[in-house]
Amino acid sequence: MLTTQSRKFLIGAAVALTAGFGANAALAQEVNLSLVIWDPAQRDGVQLAVDAFEAANPDIKVTLEQVPSDQYYTKLDAALGAGEGPDVMWQSSRASYYVAGGALQPLDEYIARDGVSLDAYNQTIAGLYNIDGKQYGMPKDFDAWTMVYNANVFEELGVTPPTADWIWDDMVRIAEDVKAKQAGGADIPLYVYYNWNNGVASLVHSLGGTVIKDGKGYMSSEEGVMALNMMRDLQDQGLITKVADSADLNPVSALISGTVAIAEIPSWNLSLLSRADVPEGSFHVLHLPAVNGAWMTDTNGLSYVMNAHSDHKEEAWELIKFLTSDEGAVLHAQGGAGLPANAAPEASAAFVEANSALVGLEDALAAQQPYPRTTTAYPKVIPPQQQINGSIMNSFYAGKISAEDAAAQIDELVTRALVQ
């Protein structure tokens, strides 16, 4: 990851543009652009949009590369640090680090020139990429969290499945009923996101709390400690796999195979379920169970950004503009990419249609109660995540420390990061 102090990029002089060259001008010669993403589940959707862009712009060729997520930022740091890297790329909550390093091109000039309105996008996501008063990214998608159950498992076990008005206690009761009837030693009733930044923090918000307050960590609040205990109770009751044994558990695959009855699935993975070779009506989608009358979920969103070192900035902008346009958003969705941040009704409709095999999806999406993910709203707390979700949370789930001790240790790390 880039840091402000140690990885300043040297931005070369801007490439001179030919006289009269603009967004709609004909290009004199073929230009080759590079586009890098990280999620293989979304590659088909991105490629579908790229193909349409190339058809409309025959003098621009785009090479799409998908880099594994655990290698993405390492490779990006190395390439951008050398003044190279892709012309266009995905960015997330780490964007501010790359802006501080001078690696990303502000898009305000292009947006104003071409009359692109940011009002056409999810405002939370659009705002994430406005850094120090400049817009560095065009929103691609936004995250929604859903609970999906395998109806075949419930039918085979003779257990009544959950309904849209379920609460946390319902989830626990249903998981207990499933557990009592599951025969396979590897079968588990439930999968939820148990790390701090996603599952635990969302539970805190649903309880009416927050994990950061007045510039300091606030997990030691009543809501924070309660959320930790609620999550560990699921493990201790055998309703989710022991956290220490869950590193290799793929919830999508487990849901498809039926080894998991109910699983928390983010929007960017829903297409994997839609395309699964299972009987019609197998997967039903709900919002998360209500806690204290709420079911808050953290949201983030990716954007397409431009390399400040690109030799083809005009063409790169044309690509970004198309990929995030109404047409581009629809094509992304049709090809299996994540939930579009483009607010056009046809974009969200395309996502629902592309995932029509998932019963109840449209209602579950409409019922979302999102809040900005902690690491998105506070990028400074990204660096301690490994320690929080590693030594602290692992020790907590292993029963080595109490919820109060885990909360205090998290608060210490978060507060230290925020004041730096």
Question: Keyphrases for this structure?
Answer:
single chain; 420 residues; alpha/beta; 15 strands
What does the model show?
By secondary structure, the chain is α/β, with parallel strands linked by helices. The protein is 41% helix and 15% strand. The protein is built from 18 helices and 15 strands. Strands 2-1-3-14-6 form a five-stranded mixed sheet. It has a four-stranded mixed sheet with strand order 8-11-7-12. A hairpin with a 2-residue loop joins strand 9 and strand 10. Helix 9 packs across helix 18. It starts with 30 loop residues before the first strand and ends with a helix.
Query: Whole-number average pLDDT?
Result: 92
Largest sheet: 5 strands, mixed
Q: What is the first-to-last residue Cα distance?
A: 16 Å
Tally of separate helices:
18
Structural class per helix/strand content? alpha/beta
For the CA atoms, what is the radius of gyration? Answer: 22 Å
Oligomer: single chain
Poorly predicted runs = 1-27
Note the overall shape: globular
User: How helix-rich are the residues, as a percent range?
Assistant: 40-55%
Into which percentage range does the β-strand content fall? 5-15%
Main-sheet strand order equals 2-1-3-14-6
Number of strands: 15
